Amino acid sequence: MLLVPGSVNADLLFKVEKLPAPGETVLCPSYEMAPGGKGSNQAAAAARAGAEVVFVGHLGDDGHAAELRRILSETGMNIDDLAISAKPTAIAVIGIDKAGENAIIVASGANLDTGSDQIADERLRPGVTVLCQNEIRPEETFRILERAAARGARTILNLAPAGRIPASTLDALDILIVNEIEARMVAGDETTPLEILARELARRHGLVCIVTLGSAGAMAISADAGWRVGALAVRPVDTTGAGDTFAGVLAAFLDEGLDIPDALHRASVAAALSCEAIGAQSAQPTRSAIDGRLGELAPPVTLRAAARPAP
Ligand code: RIB
Fold first, then answer.
1. Percent of the chain at pLDDT above 70?
2. Looking at the predicted structure, is the pLDDT value of residue 17 above 80?
3. 83 pairs with which residues across the strands?
4. What's 233's domain CATH number?
5. Is 234 left (phi over 0), alpha (psi -120 to 50) or beta?
6. What average pLDDT is seen over the chain?
7. Pocket perturbation via mutation, ligand 1, pick of 11, 13, 102, 177 by most ligand atoms within 8 A of CB
8. Can you give the pLDDT at residue 308?
9. Is 246 part of a structural domain of the chain?
């Protein structure tokens, strides 16, 4: 079972010729509203990949809440612990340019009420995988992960958006998923080659560090092993939420018992497929869509541990 405590946002999607520079106004004919938030995106991706998912979060008592609740329940995830806050439902304003790149502003609202107190101890146990992101109050995320580790659950953190994280939480992680910016922020290191930096994090904290590399794929590095996978070639329409699909699908297949390279392979295929339509969740692939395209991407290759370059 996969437990995903996290954010749920109403995404307002604006397709623009180019993203505005600071001080600039750009126009577009209309916008779309779609479900989003890194927490609910990851939960939805995992549910579509076939995992049993429990999502824990907060919505406001407002116009967006009913529609989001309906859409999330249609993915098959359990939303019994999606509580109602006095704050408004979180909104994300997302500009998407012609190349599918985006810029996002989130007003957190009800997400700020989501926390460790919503999760009973019995939910955190061996056999459960807890998947977190960094879009609710960080101290609540850290508390959930540390409690989960102490009670024997598997712990995965996708540290997005980037932020500081205490060593005690890193020590509690089985898997850390980061992009290059997030990896360098965690390590406090701007220069060390990424693979070496990931291995140092893995060794120091006893975790597997997975670094997503956008259209170059991803790598997974443990203390004494490593794998690298490429990305499926797709024509991207919107990259919003691709990292969320990656994290949700990876967690789903690990929870099912696959090993790191096999889960990494499927997550990379799923993340690419999720870029083929606008919106974070609308193009998330089903399990059969992932299986159907898996043969198009070479399986991960094993990496040999490289030494840190001399200063
Ligand atoms: O990762 C994409 C997500 O970031 C969007 O759905 C938006 O809501 C923001 O949380």
1. 98
2. yes
3. 58
4. 3.40.1190.20
5. beta
6. 96
7. 11
8. 64
9. yes
**Structural domain includes residue 221:** yes
pLDDT at 167 over 70: yes
Ligand 1 center–CA 38 separation, angstroms: 5
pLDDT of residue 306: 60
Mutate to test the pocket of ligand 1, among 33, 104, 181 (most ligand atoms within 8 A of CB): 104
What pLDDT sits at residue 124?
Answer: 98
Return the residue matching tokens 């599918």: 100
Q: What is the pLDDT of residue 100?
A: 85
Indicate whether 103 belongs to any domain.
no
CA dist., res. 44 & res. 32, Å (int)? 19
Q: Where are the alpha helices (DSSP H) in the chain?
A: 38-48, 63-74, 138-150, 167-171, 180-187, 194-205, 242-256, 260-273, 287-293
pLDDT digits over 90-132, tens only? 999 999 999 888 999 999 999 999 999 999 999 999 999 999 9
Count of the separate structural domains present in the chain: 1
Answer whether 278 contacts ligand 1 (Cβ < 6 A). no
Cβ–Cβ under 8 Å, residues 239 and 193: no
Compute the distance between CA of residue 133 and CA of residue 179 in angstroms, rounded to an integer: 13
15-43 b/e with 16+ CB inside 10 Å = b?
Answer: beeebeeeeeeeeeeeeeebbbbbbbbbb
Query: 183 lies in which domain range?
Result: 2-8+36-89+109-302
In a domain, 28, yes or no: no
By DSSP bridging, strand 226-229 and strand 301-302 are antiparallel
Q: What are the tens digits of pLDDT across the range 213-258?
A: 999 999 999 999 999 999 999 998 999 999 999 999 999 999 999 9
Please tell me if the CB atom of residue 241 comes closer than 6 angstroms to any atom of ligand 1: yes
Q: What ligand 1 atom has the least distance to the C-alpha of 41?
A: 6
State the Cα–Cα distance between residues 133 and 131, nearest whole angstrom. Answer: 7
